[in-house]
Amino acid sequence: MILASTIQKLVQHLVSTNIHLGHKRSQQHPKMIPYIYKQKDNFQIIDLGQTYWYLRKSAFFLYKSSREDKSILFVGTKKHIAPHIKKIAAECNSFSITKRWLGGLLTNWETIKKNTFTLREENNFFSKKKKSQKIRQKKRIFNYFEGIQTMFKLPDVVIIIGQRKEMNAVRECQKLKISTLTILDTDCNPDLTDFFVPANDDSIKSVLYILDKFSKAIKKGQQFLEKQKLEKQKLEKQKLEKQKFEPRKFEPRKYKVKLELIDSIDALKGPYQDNNR
User: Fold this and answer.
1) Residue 177 — left, alpha, or beta (φ > 0 → left; ψ -120 to 50 → alpha)?
2) Is the alpha carbon torsion for 224, 170, 114, 119 positive or negative?
3) Neighbour count for residue 23 (Cβ, 10 Å)
4) DSSP string covering 25-57
5) pLDDT value at residue 124
């Protein structure tokens, strides 16, 4: 009875977020059929059992990735969801692209990295004219790269919200073999991602519910990693202290005489002879 009531509460909570609402049948991707529960009023209803199972699987993947110190990039440029993505990414010490995906952002990373360096660059050492140019350049770059200005290397994992809108990001990740995790609506293709959650990717409530689970998993992994680092530092400190106060053991030096070099008694006595005699 307790288990049944818990499942019922979970289902009610998931339904309240509109996580189960898909697109019209005419927009359905054929490869999403296994994740659709039924059709209602010409709209697809996503199977909540599968949504919950894949959500847990994806959250564990993110936990494992963050405890291995892997960098994570959130990508979502839908105007009504972008501010929430930006906030959640910042809360879990991750990166984000929420304005517009510029072509070559990952595949042409060395050039993009120079632009992110411009954002961090100090203007104090430039002339007035050069300084004003740098400020204008920063403002232009900031719009696109605000969420990645401290990203010094390619991300290890990319979380995509809105696959159809972010196809450029999907293709670049595939080309570079970067792991992707996607919220898949009924009009998306599950073959274009490594991990996914079948769910409504248009509803703010739905996306926030999923991203909250992702954020918690990432934070949990980061806490585990931090704990490991502290324990390692503690052990190293104890080892150094032990070496500091432990008395050193001195052993007499052992000299090995090669008998084959001694040709005669004179050769043995030679270094000790008194020249005054």
Assistant:
1) left
2) negative
3) 19
4) GGG--GGGGGGEEEEETTEEEE-HHHHHHHHHH
5) 47
Strand extents, DSSP E, the chain: 21-24, 36-40, 43-46, 72-75, 95-97, 157-161, 179-184, 195-198
- Beta strands across the sheet bearing 21-24: 21-24, 43-46, 36-40
User: Regarding predicted confidence, which is higher, 204 or 126?
Assistant: 204
Pairing of strands 157-161, 72-75: parallel
Q: What is the pLDDT of residues 38-59, one digit of tens each?
A: 988 888 999 999 999 999 999 9
Mean pLDDT to the nearest integer, 65-76: 97
Dihedral sign for Cα atoms in the order 37, 39, 41, 45: positive
**What structural domains does the chain harbor?**
2-104+154-229 (3.40.50.10490), 107-153 (no CATH)
Are 212 and 228 in contact by the 8 Å Cβ rule? The answer is: no
**pLDDT at residue number 42:** 82
User: How many helices, marked H, and strands, marked E, lie in the chain?
Assistant: 8, 8
Q: Which of 28, 3, 55 is nearest to 37 (CA)?
A: 28
| Residue showing tokens 């920063």 | 138
Query: Using one digit for the tens of pLDDT, what is the confidence trace for 170-211?
Result: 999 999 999 999 999 999 999 999 999 999 999 999 999 999
